[in-house]
Write a structure and sequence with these properties.
Rossmann fold, 5-stranded parallel sheet, alpha/beta
Length: 248
C-alpha cells in the first residue's frame, strides 16, 4: 500500500506550510515519505517552473502555460511520484492536477475536457488518494501574501510558531521561506476569485477524495487536524525499518 496526498487551495492559503509540517511529522514517525511541489520537484521541472512563473514572461500564451504545467507534471510523475508509490511510500505533493483545473480551467476558461485529456497523458491517469483543501477566500489569501511580503521587505521577523508537542519542529522557518510573487499571483483579483470558486466545483464533483479545512485557523491547529485525518490511511503503510523516530 502507498499513499498519495496532494495539497490544493488558493494563493497564500498555507499549502506549503502544511505540506512541510505533515512531511516533518510523518518522517519523524518513521514513515517513508517524500515532499514535492508543482510545478517543479525535478531538475527539469524546476527549469520549467522558472519559465512558467517568471513575472517577466507576460507574453506567454495560455496554451503554452497549460502545456508547460503539464510537461513539468509528466516529469514529476514519471521520475519521482510513481516510482516512490510503487515502493509503498507516501508522496505529499504541494499542488497537482486540480490546480490545472482550477487555474487554467476555471481561472482562464480553458476547455475542461481538453485539460482532463492532457492531464491523463501527463500523469498516466495517476490520481491522488486524498486531496487536502485549504479553504480561504481568494481575497484573504492574496491579502495574507501581501502582508507577509511587506513584513519581509521591512525585515521584520515572523513570530515563532506554536506547534503542538506531538508535531516535530522543523529546523528552519516552517513554511516561512521567502514569499513568492509570481506571474500567476500577479493576475487580477477576479481571476483568483474564479479559481477559488472553481475549487468548490471540483470538490462538489468528487467529494470523497477531498478533505477541506478552514485555512483561517492557526497553523498548528490545522496541522493537527490534517495529520488526524490521514491516520486511517497510515495503518496500511509499512514503516521504514532503519529510521529511528526523530523526537527533537
Ligand atoms: N493558518 C495560517 N494562518 C496565518 N498565516 C498563515 C497560515 N498558514 C500559512 N500562513 C502564512 O501565510 C503565508 C503563505 O503561506 P504558504 O506559503 O504556506 O501558502 P501557499 O498556499 O503555499 O501559498 P502559494 O499559493 O503562494 O504557494 C506564509 O507567510 C505563511 O507563514
Ligand atoms: Mg506554496
Amino acid at each position: 500500500m502507498s499513499l498519495f496526498v496532494t495539497f490544493e487551495g488558493p494563493e497564500g492559503s498555507g499549502k506549503s506550510t502544511q505540506a512541510r509540517l505533515l512531511y516533518s511529522y510523518l518522517h519523524a514517525r518513521g514513515y517513508p515519505v517524500i515532499l514535492v511541489r508543482e510545478p517543479g520537484g525535478t531538475r527539469i521541472g524546476d527549469l520549467i517552473r522558472r519559465i512558467v512563473l517568471d513575472l517577466q514572461h507576460t507574453e506567454m500564451a495560455d496554451t503554452t502555460e497549460m502545456l508547460l504545467f503539464s510537461a513539468a507534471r509528466a516529469q514529476l510523475v514519471n521520475e519521482v511520484i510513481r516510482p516512490y508509490l510503487e515502493q509503498g511510500g507516501i508522496v505529499l505533493c504541494d499542488r497537482y492536477a486540480d490546480s490545472t483545473y482550477a487555474y487554467q480551467g476555471y481561472g482562464l476558461g480553458r476547455d475542461m475536457n481538453e485539460l482532463r485529456t492532457l492531464t491523463a497523458i501527463a500523469t498516466g491517469g495517476l490520481l491522488p488518494d486524498v486531496t487536502i483543501y485549504l479553504d480561504l477566500t481568494a481575497d484573504e489569501g492574496l491579502e495574507r501574501k501581501r502582508r507577509k511580503r511587506q513584513e519581509q521587505d521591512a525585515g521584520r521577523a515572523a513570530p515563532p510558531l506554536n506547534l503542538p508537542s506531538e508535531l516535530p519542529r522543523l529546523g528552519g522557518a516552517e513554511g516561512r521561506g521567502p514569499i513568492e510573487w509570481n506571474r500567476l499571483d500577479a493576475r487580477e483579483v477576479a481571476y483568483h476569485r474564479r479559481v477559488a470558486e472553481g475549487y468548490r466545483k471540483l470538490i462538489a464533483q468528487e467529494p470523497e477524495r477531498w478533505r477541506a479545512f478552514d485555512a483561517c485557523q492557526a497553523i498548528d491547529a490545522l496541522a493537527g487536524q490534517i495529520a488526524g485525518e490521514l491516520e486511517p490511511w497510515l495503518e496500511h503503510i509499512q514503516m521504514l525499518e532503519t529510521t529511528t523516530p526523530d523526537t527533537q
